[in-house]
Write a structure and sequence with these properties.
A six-stranded mixed sheet has the order 3-2-1-4-5-6, with helices on both faces. A hairpin with an 8-residue loop joins strand 4 (222-225) and strand 5 (234-239). The protein is elongated and about 70 Å long. The protein contains 13 helices and six strands. With 283 residues, the protein is of the alpha/beta class.
């Protein structure tokens, strides 16, 4: 099987979990290679996500690693054998890989939770809002690059609007709702879009108002994607080099704790909806 030129975040995660099982068993890559009649280099490529792995090999490795967590093993098998080619594949080679990785993580999530402070969440953005953001951050970007970015952002909505929508809860700061990234009309349309998603049941939105006491999370922006089992949850946070995908247990627990603390500082869904209605009327 030829090596992949690019491993997706999902493929990297599979390799990471296999490496963790090996290390928990106290085995070196060369020892794992002997079990599969392979080479240490091939084990390394598999654990980095550049080489595929069959169901039979996943189960053999799990047995040799003395892993008895059947739910985890089955989930890893599903990851290894999944051949989904989603809508995001049409943007491979057109947009940076992180665009496809984010859409793929969202597609496979069992639930999505998000915290945004300065911008409306990508899953709720209108075309005008997204275009204004990209244009501002990347002045002079040619239309050939701008258009697919906007299209990709709008297509991501499928995960919460499709036939089998993924439960989505987002905590939005009042700042994000008030900042006009475009003109007044675009801002009003954006707030109406958020309200529409609430009323259609696609999004559970909670607002963090400016006058909330004891809120120290203004620097936090994150998405939390539920896995088939909690051990395979994924966190996404903005980093200087792009989106950072988080899978370490301690960091995931920290993200869960942060989300709960920020949710406690937000208005309930009904009050949040009414809050956004009032902002819309002010425009």
């Amino acid at each position: 099987m030829p090596l992949r030129s690019h491993a997706t975040a999902r493929q990297v995660r599979l390799g990471t979990e296999l490496r963790r099982l090996r290390e928990a068993a106290g085995l070196k890559a060369r020892e794992a290679a002997q079990l599969l009649n392979s080479t240490p280099a091939q084990i390394s490529q598999m654990e980095l996500g550049f080489a595929g792995v069959s169901e039979e090999r996943v189960r053999r490795l799990a047995a040799h690693y003395a892993c008895v967590d059947s739910a985890l093993i089955d989930a890893l098998v599903d990851m290894a054998t999944d051949r989904t080619r989603g809508w995001w594949e049409e943007y491979r080679g057109v947009l940076p890989p992180v665009f496809q990785d984010t859409a793929e993580v969202e597609h496979h999530a069992t639930f999505l939770r998000e915290v945004v402070i300065t911008h409306v969440p990508g899953l709720l953005q209108t075309a005008d809002y997204a275009r204004a953001l990209y244009t501002y951050v990347h002045p002079g970007m040619p239309e050939s690059e701008l258009t697919p970015r906007v299209e990709h952002r709008l297509k991501r909505r499928a995960v919460i609007e499709g036939d089998h929508p993924t439960p989505y809860e987002t905590l939005i700061h009042e700042c994000a709702l008030r900042v006009r990234v475009a003109d007044r009309g675009a801002s009003r349309a954006q707030l109406q879009q958020v309200l529409g998603q609430i009323e259609e049941g696609h999004a559970n939105v909670r607002v963090i108002p400016f006058d909330q006491d004891g809120f120290g999370g203004a620097g936090i922006s994150m998405m939390y994607a539920g896995g088939p089992i909690p051990q395979l949850d994924t966190g996404l946070r903005d980093a200087p080099t792009g989106v950072e995908f988080i899978d370490a247990a301690a960091q995931l627990e920290q993200l869960r704790t942060l989300f709960r603390r920020i949710r406690d500082a937000s208005l309930d869904p009904i009050a949040s909806r009414d809050f956004i209605h009032r902002l819309t009327k002010e425009l």
